[in-house]
Write a structure and sequence with these properties.
Blueprint (H helix, E strand, L loop, with lengths): L1 H32 L19 H14 L1 H33 L1 H14 L8 H8 L3 H25 L3 H9 L4 H39 L4 H10 L3 H34 L6
Helix pairs in contact: 2-10, 3-4, 3-6, 3-8, 3-9, 5-6, 6-8, 8-9, 8-10, 9-10
Amino acid sequence: MRVKRLIRTFKRYVRQLAFIAVLLCVWEAFSWWNPFNWPTARGVSYPYLFPPPSVVAKTFIELLVSGELLRHTTVSMERVFMGFGIGVALGIPVGVLIARYRVAEDTLDVLVKALHPIPGIAWLPLAILWFGLGTKAIVFIVITGAFFPVAINTTAGIKNVDPVLIRAAKTMGADGAKLFLKVMLPGSLPHVVSGLRIAWAFSWRALAAGELVGASSGLGYLLNVGRFLHDMPMVISTMLTIGFLGYIIERFIFRTLEAKTIERWGLARQA
């Protein structure tokens, strides 16, 4: 059984790598072919607006070796984890309040669901007016990206705990805090962890958008520098870095945590 699983995993990775290789080949050929007659950079034959992956890779290595990419990546990671942590720390208690108390459901729940559809970048003008340009404003919009999904999923998780489990626990004498800690909280964990995964995606996007406008460092800032310099290889290198980091953290931290949580509590996915 284990051998079959390993073979399936190996085949999946081979297909993924083959697909990426084909995409890179098509991209390279398309760039040099230049069917839309895009302009070329001075002294450089590759299309200025759509450089091939070989040129992008060269620029990426230069940014990496110079330390520039690592420096901006470190700043961005510090901001996103700070904002994400605060958003989660606020979102879980609010979700619990809404799920447990009717007054909170009639008031806070309406507010949370009304503000949730607002994209992170829409909070940026308000954040700049409150905190000025810089880290504080960016962390604020990251907090908004994390807070709402966590609060909503925490509420849904607690409300969707199997009533049979609650009745059984009450029959065995559990009530109040003990009922919540031993039954409702564990039963809601799959929803909560799914909320963390969604919150990460929202936070990461909000970070990049905020750094494009209101920062003097970070990956979003580096993206903006590339745009000002008309350096398309730098722009694409930074975009790929943002996408790769976001995927790696979502895939190997949050998706793994979600799978382990569902496996640990023996619950089917509900969200």
